[in-house]
Amino acid sequence: MLKASVIGATGYAGQELVRILSVHPGVRLCHLASESYAGVSMGQVYPHLNRKVTMECETPDIEVIGRDSDVVFFCLPPGHAMEIVPKVLEAGARVVDLGADFRLKDPEMFRKWYGETHACPHLLDEAEYGLPELHRDDIGGRRLVANPGCYPTAAILGVAPLLKAGLLDGRPMVIDAKSGVSGAGRALSLQVHFSEVNENMTPYGVGGHRHLPEMIQEMGFIAGRPVSACFTPHIAPVTRGILCTIYIQCSRDLSQEEATEIYMSFYKGEPFVEVLNGSLPSTKHVLGSNNCHVAVRVDENTGMLIVIAAIDNLVKGAAGQAVQNMNILFGLAECAGLKAISIFP
């Protein structure tokens, strides 16, 4: 049994991670760290976990957590994990970071987009970007995995088949994305106040969202050359889910049959990516699961491709993908603990 600890266990991504790990057949929860709820049981913080997770949250003791654990998950705001991940690695544990601290390979890009100097730039090259559908062979055996952001997960999985096939014509793709309010985290703010969100749709981060450089970096790796994108996220009046619609001008005309075949072939055998042919992705149909639904359509009027991807931002966009990465890291069955069917309606 792997001994797993979670630092930042009481945020939305952290509690989802605890929920999944608590029923994972190959894992025993070791430490649940939370500065805000030290001494309080997870069942008191989140009653849906009552009698399932009886452990108390604790103030994080990094040396003890690193020494006691096989794997430590970090669910912290940007800039926090990089200060303490080196100590956990030195203690012998492996790390899956659900935050942004190790996703960007260039420390100058991290400073530009997150506003601070990276504390351990020597680890950026060592960290593997944890999108299993693209980096599965490189994740196994690593000490440090950078779990992708929720928007980048949907966007990258949406366009990867076209990038790999060399079908972009060099013009920027347009990425229009909507996210449930849980993507903003559990901290109180006016932006996610019920009266502000209910019956409303709001764009934010226009022309400068922090997930854009992550998308560009990874898309460029897949394409083998620089790519560009215009990305606009929106808050939708729902709790969970991301719906990403991407508009792409290809280097040549594609028929609907050819476009669908490119996607079907690329994701053949993938346990968590399903290419829809007769229907279109919807956030309801991936709710609570680690699945990504993708569809591609040819716009007959313009010749552009329209790609739509849907994920649950807290599962495939965060905790579920982190567990998928852990499974690969330690040679477990990749789907272990992640076989839950989506909740509907």
How many strand units?
13
Count every helix, treating DSSP H or I runs of 4 or more residues as helices: 11
Instruction: Tell me, rounded to a whole number, the average pLDDT.
Output: 96
Could you tell me how far the N terminus lies from the C terminus, measured between alpha carbons in angstroms? 35 Å
Kindly report the spatial arrangement of strands forming the biggest sheet.
8-9-7-10-13-12-11
Radius of gyration: 20 Å
Taking the sheet with the most strands, its summary is: 7 strands, mixed
* Range of strand content: 15-25%
**Poorly predicted tracts of residues:** none
Task: List SSEs in N-to-C order.
Answer: EHEHHEHEHEHEHEHEHEEHEEEH
Helix fraction?
25-40%
What structural category characterises the helix and strand content? Answer: alpha/beta
- Gross morphology is globular
What can you tell me about this protein's structure?
The protein has helices at residues 12-22, 42-45, 62-68, 81-90, 107-114, 132-139, 150-164, 194-197, 211-223, 256-266, 315-329; strands at 2-7, 27-33, 71-74, 94-97, 128-129, 144-146, 173-179, 202-203, 229-235, 242-248, 273-275, 292-298, 305-311. With 345 residues, the protein is an alpha/beta fold. The strands form two sheets. The chain has a seven-stranded mixed beta sheet. The chain has a six-stranded parallel beta sheet with strand order 2-1-3-4-6-5, sandwiched between helices. Strand 12 and strand 13 form a beta hairpin. Helix 1 (12-22) crosses helix 11 (315-329) and helix 3 (62-68) packs across helix 4 (81-90). 47% of the residues are buried.
